Amino acid sequence: MFPAPGDAVAIVPAYNEERCIGRTLDALCGARESGALQGIVVVDDGSKDRTGAIARGYGVDVLENTHFGVPWNHGKLYSFVHGLRESLPRAPGVVLASDADLLTLTPSMVEDFLGLFRERDLGMLIGTYLQGSDWFSAPRCPAHLSGFRAMRAGLLAPFYDPSRRGEFPWMASALALRRWEGYALETVINAIMPDDAVRYVDMPLTSRERGGSCGARAINEAIGLGNAITRRDITYGKRHFLGALARSAA
Questions:
Q1: End-to-end Cα distance, the chain
Q2: Residue in 49, 146, 148 with CA at minimum distance from that of residue 96
Q3: Which pTM was predicted?
Q4: Is the dihedral of CA 135, 224, 83, 94 positive or negative?
Q5: CA distance 92 to 84
Q6: In three state form, how does the secondary structure of the chain look?
Q7: Closest by alpha carbon to 182, among 153, 138, 230, 216?
Q8: What's residue 2's pLDDT?
Q9: Which of 5, 96, 125, 161 could cross-link with 157 by S-S, CB 3.0 to 4.6 Å?
């Protein structure tokens, strides 16, 4: 279905994640050492803590969002696009978008996830997980809004190539609004992906306790945004579900 993938690059938008980003980068850097990932880009979204400094200590590429030269919080959508555009000189075949606060991510989990993505020849594979640190009681992130996903870089062209936006006339205005809340990034990605190229898989992951931004209001806003820009259901159904990740990692 798709050309053979080239290098895999992870893009990690991060805002005030000094407590969690080290654990996420431990896993991603481990996957880089094994060859599953070839590049890691952290986009520091105007953090007021040591997020950027911690990321630099891992030897990954760190970009800073600014406004007139001053560190500035532009939001996750802008951060991802910033990282994607800066990654283009590497000509990546696969882009792994990862939240910065995945508490239980491990190198072998990343390797298995990318392996499944390539084996199934998909356009996008989404990993579902829990919100909050308590595996037994935390709510599950809606599958289509998960922040951990592997994608064919070519399918993300509308983000950086205006000539590829013919099917998505709303894209320019979406990107012009720099400060988006909630799940705008995930919703816009879903909107440009062909349905038949998408699958998702359950992962033994938890993210940190986020508070109100990941509540029902944010989810409903994301669904409303998706319906408005696509006029189709992008929540994905059971036919997209591949089950649980085959190997859980130690």
A1: 33
A2: 148
A3: 0.86
A4: positive
A5: 10
A6: CCCCCCCEEEEEEECCCCCCHHHHHHHHHHHHHHCCCCEEEEEECCCCCCHHHHHHCCCCEEEECEECCEECCCCHHHHHHHHHHHHHHHCCCEEEECCCCECCCCHHHHHHHHHHHHHCCCCEEEEEEEECCCCCCCCECCHHHCCEEEEEHHHHHHHHCHHHCCCCCCHHHHHHCCCCCCCHHHHHHHHHCCHHHEEEEEEEEEECCCCHHHCHHHHHHHHHHHHHHHCCCCCCCHHHEEEECCCCCC
A7: 216
A8: 47
A9: 161
pLDDT digits (tens, 9 = 90+) for 198-223: 998 988 888 765 443 445 555 555 55
For residue 155, what are its two tokens?
């399918």
Joined tokens for residue 238: 């059971």
Rounded to an integer, what distance in angstroms lies between the CA atom of residue 142 and that of residue 165? Answer: 27
Domains of the chain are 8-244 (3.90.550.10)
pLDDT along the chain (250 residues), means of 10: 69 95 97 95 96 97 88 88 90 93 92 94 88 51 86 93 86 70 82 89 75 50 58 64 63
Q: For residue 130, give both structure tokens.
A: 């829990």
Q: Are 41 and 13 in contact (CB under 8 A)?
A: no
